[in-house]
Fold each of these.
Amino acid sequence: MNSKSSRDEDAVLDALEAEAIWMIREAASAFQKPVILYSIGKDSTVLLRLAVKAFAPAPVPFPVLHIDTTWKFKEMIKFRDDTARTNNLDLVVHTNPDGRGDKITPFTHGADEYTRLMKTVALRAALDVGEYDVALGGARRDEERSRAKERMFSLREPGHAWDPSSQRPEFWHTVNSTLKPGQTMRAFPISNWTELDVWKYIRREKLDVVPLYFSKERPTIERNGQLIMIDDDRYPLEPGEEIVNRRIRFRTLGCYPLTAADTGEAASVDEIIDELTRSTTSERSGRLIDGKGASSMERKKHEGYF
Amino acid sequence: MSSALLRIVVCGAVDDGKSTVLGRLLVETNSIPLDEIDNSRLMANGEVDYSQLTDGLESEREQGITIDVAHRHVYLPSGRRAILADSPGHEQYTRNMAVAASEADLGLLLVDAVKGVRDQSVRHAAINSLMGVKHIVVAVNKMDAVDYDKSVFDGIVEELSRRFEPFGFVDITYIPVSGMVGDNVTFPSENMSWGNSVTILSLLDQERTFNRSGGDGSLRLPVQFVSKAGDVRWYAGTIARGTVTVGDTVRVWPAMTEAKISGIYAPNETKTAGDAQAVHVTLDREVDIARGDVIVGATGEIPSSRAHLADLVWIDTKPLDIHASYILRSGPIEIPARVETVRYVRNITTGEQARGHPLEVNDIGRVEIVTDRPILLDPYAESIHTGGFILVDRLTAATVAAGMSKHPLVRESDVVKHDFAVGRAERERLNGLRSCVLWLTGLPGSGKSTVADELEKSLITLGLRSFTLDGDTVRSTLSEDLGFSPEDRKENVRRVARVAELMMEAGIVVIVSLVSPFREDREMAKERFADGDFIEVFVDTPLEICMQRDPKGLYARSQADKSMQMTGVGQGYEVPLAADVTLDGTQPVEDSVQKLLGLVLSRRI
């Protein structure tokens, strides 16, 4: 990479950072009771850093909320508590009380119902209890197709329902923060960031992330073609399933029984960025050689993309 | 500013092939995750169906509606980034396009080579212009379907150049492309050897300077909030215009207290910060500052007033209620506001102005907006973040309109001046008539001065006082230092308008007889006045007749001296699109005088 394009990439991060800080400040000042939704992953890590910068030299003036399903990776919980301590954060942890004592698990209720109860329902309850009128999250528009149409400030009707047709048009740096009774707002300051931007920012700001993102030998089983890391003895093994140490890492983090591992070799932030960049460069150069249309697609298929 | 993060609004009529071009651009720049290109996105022959890559929300498909602007990243080869705001929608396109264009640096407009130029293309360009997008790339798509015929492309370029002329774009680039085949999207076309091998991608990645702020460039830092670290108060905001440096003297609107900048975080500690940076600043003395205050430069006029002239894009299905109080928001500023007058609703494609029309969804209106307290609104063309605003319905909490300020309107109540006992109203009573300005515009020789003279004669007979500001007289006195270039003509119009305004304050009927060939200049003159006080009169006489009459021998002289900037010969005359009165210059002058006299007498008190 030449220095000109590296400068441009740095300028992209600066612009994204400025936009996110503007949003965090707006959420903090145009609403009554803001909260950060903290999921411990890389996006949340960046969001926290941006919040600290948005208020520096003053401290972050609102709490950080984690919805604990009780099935998160142990390393995530440790990282959460360390982060809260070193950054002096007002950390609020909420767990759906019905989930305690393993009454609701991904195994007894199925993944969908478990997720609904332990994440969605729990989040709604926590927001209601805290009377938060704006919740900042680390979602990004590039994550999936439907999010490309999400607002930066996304309105939630009473009961936290999202009605796409009642979303407010967004102009300039002017936010319509007027809420009717029961309405709340979600704010996504890193809407315009890509996965690569997130990692580049983590590198630039020298941020710690949960070590699970880095490749390492970990105890795993293979189920339905996916590798699952066995983080504790609550995971019911099926006959014939055997725990094997494999070199794995995670691209996203969630509840360990529901998060498939990646066999990528990256063991540092640099290597993750390299892995993400390299895959695109090789394809781009491949396309430049192969020309356009069917031939390049065909080649991608040969490489096993589909 | 030169931008590493380029914001682009993508527009085009429904079947101009926008999805295909966009899909191809995303795939060929590796900007779309590969797992999105699953089998459902392939055509029977195994090729990617590019048009299927950018489809929207499940609920949109279910409900058969288009809800929103989609945002997509394109990684540019230089390392810069483009965020494409893809604005869909048929009925809602004004709203969606206005949103997508509000922060865009550049517009990418698709036109179908097969169907040719349609009104919608012109409308999209007009909305770009309205929202302040001044750089346009026009991709003439589906060139494969017209056999890559250069003459088809040239015809479209010629027509668009003509129809885009009123929009004042800084630059327009036209390129022939085929989204289906892939010509000139990211790969130079081999099928159009007559082209210059420019691609959409290379145009997006071209180094450009965008200037969405101007004016005197002085600082605008709207304060989002105030925080305290130790004993120090910090003021947080994003710089909307200008730069800030430690040691600078600044003023704080609205109190206009002066202080010096003594510290800056942007977001790390620094000595100076500029456009679009999110900063924290502190001042050298204790100043009472709250959210919604604006830190401004030490010098320069601040456009703070209770009344502003503005363009409104109405986006709510409930029309404007002229009696309702809305909440006006501009960045952190929040003030109750009313729309006092709708001067006209503009047909954005033709420029026609409809008066006495309600402001309804997707309408664009020129309005006078009045706030409960004075508000700082810069002309939008000089600062988008401090010149743009929204209106919020108090009952539904919906955003009902987006506004772009033109300039503040001076109301008597705003001006702190000596409390004169005698004002315009008192002077008007002497004349028994509400004073006004009759602005006669038309070609040289159209008969303006004759009409003005005859009208004054009739007014004097009726005992009504009047005065004519005649072009020739003005040129040899007030504007003796000016020539006939467009800039000088503009200045001449400005001066005449200002003098006419003063004379109107004197309570008399003011008649202006001035060629004033440019629409923009006349519009500028008109905007100085309250609704109804300025009457634009078009003296409509065909050029041939003016040349025959040639009372001053000007046309004859201009035939001999080609360097003369003679309106109608060397310089164009822009016919008024919405004159208040049109006089037929081929008819007897008495008819014209009667028409104007009737108008003046309708203002008796």
Amino acid sequence: MWAFNQAITWLFKIIFFPWEKLHPWWGMIYISLLTGLFMLWVFRLTSNQAGIKEVKQQIKAHLLEIRLFKDNMALTLKAQGRILLCNLKYISYSFKPMLVMILPLLLILIQLNFRFAYQPLAPGERTIVKVKVKPGFDLLQMPISLTSSPGIMVETPPLRIEEGGEIDWRIRAVQEGHHLLKIKINNDQEVEKEIFVAARGARKLSTLSPLRPPSNFIPSLLYPLEKPIPSDLPLQDIEVIYPSGNFHFLGLSLHWLIVYFLLAIAFGFGLKRIVGVEI
Amino acid sequence: MKRRDFLKTAFLSGAIASAGWDPFRAFTNQGRRDTSQKILILGFDGVDPHLLETFIRQGKLPAFAKLWQEGDFKPLGTSIPPQSPVAWSNFITGTDPGGHAIFDFIHRDPQQYLPTFSASKTEEAKRTLNLGNLVLPLSGGEVTLLRQGKAFWQYLEEYDIPATVFKIPSNYPPAPSKQRTISGMGTPDILGTYGIFNFYTTTAAEVQKDIGGGRIHNVYIIGNQIEAKLPGPINSFKKDRPETFVNFKVHIDPVHPVVKISLPGEEFILQEGEWSGWKRVEFPLIPTQSVSGICMFYLKQVRPDFKLYVSPVNIDPANPALPITTPSSYSKELAEKFGPFFTKGLPADTSALDSDILDEKEFLTQDDFILAERNAMFDYELDRFESGVLFYYVSSTDQRQHMFWRLIDKNHPSYEPKLAKEFGSAIEKIYTEVDKILAKALAKIDKNTTLIVMSDHGFCPFRYSFNLNTWLKESGYLSLINEWKQGQEDLFLNVDWHRTKAYAVGLNGLYLNLKGREAEGIVTEREKEALMREIAHKLESYIDPTTGKRPILRAYVTKDVYHGPYTHKAPEIIIGYNHGFRVSWTSPLGGIPKKIVEPNTEKWSGDHCMDPSVIPGILMTNRPIKHSSPHLYDLTASILKTYGIPIPPTMRGKPIF
């Protein structure tokens, strides 16, 4: 799983390489365009293009029928029923491309989440590091400490919340750059978590994972940037709370997913004639 | 009714209704004209000429010393009475209270004999639609500035001269203008009050405390966790008008003095003795509608008893529920640049210090936050000050003198030698802080800039409280329904109005119970003049048998000293207290305790609600002052003259340059 995650992550690093020094808006426009093209391509390859064309013509014909015979209630109702059937047929034609696209789209979304959902910590900014402990371990008895490379300052002793098996620390970003948090357990085991600090001024596209996952399949799939925590450790996951990376447009604060889907759909519709795809 | 309740009731009801103010009212820019002459005004509230001169002579204020040497320094005549809202209104409009209608912090409703706030009025939507328990406003609520008269920046605007007016008191809601202004003293918190803090504790004794300006909540630790509510504004969208609140949890480490506070959408960790910085809270009203506020948490103690202080919830400048700036985008601009910042008029929580919720060190830490914010914003505004007028205001000078005078005055009833040793320099420190601000200004200005450093009044000790209503009662001007209940009730609840000729409301005001004006007035227009003179004379002659001093230096008959169309609305008499004396805490809200004079044992120990001659302000400029005894309203005329704007006949002031 880790090798697969690394491969996908590297692929996206290459895809986003030209946009790394720029504001995330550029990367977002670029990946939305690529995704739009990708979806069109998949749609053209996997959908019944002739069928879609035909069913759309039929819908148009029935709509015309409703307009022409609006005084004839029976005919209008019949036409509406046929439109409904055509719509179901249309959806069935789109089902196959949807199925084909769902997995690659999921992988794309996972990767995009780490590029657009969060912002790095700014120097001086404080946040929380959360460590979840596996059930069955006594938090109070467990010797655990958090240290860091010089770019991060650990400001508090561990805060143990027995309900939920959580140990928290407050940290403060001191220097820009990629840093490592080191969690020492039972005096002999150590696990690390990456953390990224960058100046807030001119925001750039950055890749960061808030969570180092456990070694289970689903969390590893959803958090592919860091190697899962070895299963022999009593820890479940390690999380750093990063600020939200929402996009701002005309005074609105927008979640990246909304921006992404709107742009991808807009590109898809805008380019369908050029690519020659019937949607 | 306690002071806290009064404050709450008075303001609360309209706060949310006014959320319907027009956000597009002033998406406009200030005046654009490039002026060859610029005026930079630093308004340091309450800086006292005697203290200032002392510190300058001791070499502690190099920037003030430099300005004095190169320019001029004179005491500045303050207002009658010398209360900040009155004094700053004199400066804003160039008139006395007869011209701007602000006579005191507190006015009164003559029909109900109840105190009202003088600065602003909030009204809920007049037309509403009731749907079950929902009340939907069909028109916007309104917040009205009660100060009358035109502000100097409005005159400047007519001549296209830009002005930035930062946190000037007596300008909430901000007077309509295209100039950049942000309201100062008088701006409420999110509850619509002058500031209500919240304190969460497991100490039963503290829960019993009766305090003003705050609410104490009893909390319980269950499984190292506390569940609590942060109260918000009244929800006027609901028929039963419930209080809104934000739930939050506190997770406590079983061993270390450290907690995690979980608010909706945000978590943060605090160690004992730490402040959280600003946290945003959203009070839900109805789906799609909420009110945004900002507050700070301070973890005072974890064990043995848990103690958590939450500052008054300020209006969120990034999303203001009430109008605090012109144009409306100005607060958002500042919030974008600096993050959340104090918007409440008087940001330092003097109530928390007064009621021992915060100690001196904690109060000063909070005040340092305020000062740091003000400094950062001053740098920003000074940096872009290229034309016209920049007015910049600092409140910490006033607040620290109010709270720490007892530690520089060995004759004060609240003087504590140990505390004086530790915090006796708090006032001196704030003078050195404003000296640093002045130094920045001196470094920035050129030969075409007039620099004015001013204060609205000075300061002096507040050692003794004078119960004015008690004096009226003892002198036969005020009668009680039940003599035996004297001292037990506020808000004149025990006053027999049919046998009362005069009553006192506010910090310096005394009203006659006039027939035709007051609901149960008995003094006729014919009796009025003689009665006013008689009371004024008796007040000035009164000698306190305990101290052997005259608590009242002057009793001003307002029609003799005020000019302008609002003089008839003023109290008949304004009391000018002697050095060391001030009105008591209970008298302004209609309390009638048994003793006329009592020692003031509160931490609020310095004051300025005395006679104007006792506590003049300061005026220091980089140009010679031609006026021998300048007053606040003279500065307004001077600003207009600098730009060749004719001085309106309604303005009382005369140019000082």
Amino acid sequence: MAIFRSHVLVCVDPECLKKGAHDIMDALQDELVTKGLIDEIQVLETSRIGGCDNGPEIMVYPEGVHYVGISPDDVPYLVEEHFLKGRTAEKFVLKEKTFIDEELSAPTSKEVRIVLKNCGIIDPGNIEEYLAEGGYEGLGKVLTSYTPEETIDIVLRSGLGGRGGAGFPTGKKWQFCRATQEWPKYMICNADEGDPGAFMNRRVLEGDPHAVIEGMIIGAYAVGSSQGYIYCRAEYPLAIKTLNIAIDQAHALGLLGKDILGSGFDFDLEVRMGAGAFVCGEETALMASIEGKRGEPRPRPPFPAVKGLFGKPSNVNNVETYANVPQIIINGPEWYASYGTEKSKGTKTFALAGDVQHTGLIEVPFGLTLREIIFDVGGGIKDGKAFKAIQTGGPMGGCLPAEFLDLPVDYQELAKAGSIMGSGGLVVMDEDTCMVDIARFFMDFVQDESCGKCTPCRVGTRRILEILEGICEGRGKESDLDTLEMLCEQIQEDSLCGLGQGAPNPVVSTLKHFRSEYEAHIKEKRCPAKVCKPLIRYDIVDGPCTGCTVCARNCPVNCITGERRQTHVIDPDVCVRCGICMQVCNFNAIVIN
Amino acid sequence: MSATTATVQKNNPLTDPVRKQLIDQIVDQNKDRPGAIMVVLNEVQSAIGFITTEMQDYIAHRLQVPASRVHGVVSFYSFFTTNARGTHTVKFCMGTACYVGGTPALIEKTKQILGIEPGNTTPDGNITVEICRCVGACSQAPVILVDEDVIGRVKPNKMPQVLKPIQEIAE
């Protein structure tokens, strides 16, 4: 492969295409030919550099300089400055944003990138770029120098745990599946990342699909499988497209199919698309869905390693688990186990979202505290507000208040604190968040996504939702809190799968840590965070209001009246408490009471 | 509702040779795969945009499975819809970050502009408004999807601007 001293990535997102990204590409190619640099500098297409607002945009590596707002006429100047004179063309550098990528910025000092190593750096549509980063070396090493048992032993010694949320040792899972004497065996990748607030897997599938594929092939060799499925949720069309391209390319190079790399080992892979059912992230429901059935979970045992897809032994791992495997093989299990805590080894990707300064993906070793994650990596709370709670583990996780900020994050510590690791969504909430409303929001989600098989989950979550809605609307009774606690306990104990067992967690944790907020709603009919609409009213303050009429013109129900240059008035009986008036007011004249 | 039913009958894909051929093609390509029902339904949904009861019966017949199995699968997954949709779809992400980031206010504003609640289609059959699960673009919350395009950091007063292009096409 030719070696280039520099790579120019041109963003071809729809926004940039509209602004002429292809013209920039053509102009770059022409100019590089003219200047005789075409053998030294490669021009590539990419997406999501993150400056589309000011597009067209390009990124120059290895320097990582981000140029925006260029026209084809600027290209000769840019090439001259950057590639001939070797200095940055300052006037096109993106200034406002310190972040290069909306989702994935340059790693901070506390981060360790193993799974996200290649994301945003290589072209996911080109297998050669993955190969150049050491891709498929792990597979080569396994097929030429290790037996399946040795491969399992390496994964076991690395301490890698299932990244789907439970943290079960991956090596052990593979051992169980290998031990079952029945064929065919299926290798399944769970890419049904349904937790709201989590997008780690999507980014890996879109940014580095071959890492997942390579991990699956290694796993298939270890357990003795010849057919694999990647079950990806339908909400991720780009991930599905990227995966299919990657699979075709791997086929073309003999990395998938018959007799892989001349080793005599066969393995094939197919992408299957979900259809918008959250419960299909549960492994038995996922397999039912691949079989073309309703995605309802079934009791375990028998575990998938014994009786899984189509009744055959199967191994199900998460996207992130597989993506770790090639790195473990290349660098050795001791290297991997050197990161993390005593019981949780390695790193974990998290999607940091909510009211935090820098939202996006991060990858940190286990053992970092929540405080380090939120304040050092995430830059603290937005708009200088106060931290209130962090929700870990998606809709079945818990909300932890400020006293848990120094909790080291690993599977065991989070469980002790009454939350879960889950797939890795971290939603930070500031002082303006109402915890009762949040509990109601999650309950609305799980009751809608309950598959309906078990009565406690199907009916119980519905009852909890009704009680929470009542509390949010000012109809709460003091006995409600006891009823909630009883319902939560019963649903946790009597449900079949993780969805039901985890469903009450947001209620349990908010009841435990934010009980006073529930009490304020019930006893004083007051929402301390000023969120629950029936318990608040909007008013216009006399002094600051200039009578500019902006609020009246934007009100969706026309409930604001007043003469121009006179203080306006909101009619509380008509007002729907949408808060639009407050957002559009330039004089901070609207307050919530 | 009656308007929607009328649209469905007018556009019955089984009586339209082009679309019927498309359905047949999808069935033929996939019928021998293990777990074919999901694959076929997913492809029909994306090719035609909906799967009516008649289409479900037809697919069941072609795959030689009971109609109840196909209907069971269609009714289980939220991606499958049985009614014809508008030409354009506006979806509001109800992920945690978007919810906290202000999706409810965006829906309120949209109701004002289009006069319909989520889950419905405008009377002219042009725009369907829906609520959807987390689309995984949380760092740009609140997010809406206009057809396939993800639009992030939307504010209520930007809604008219966002909806304008798809409203205009209809006119």
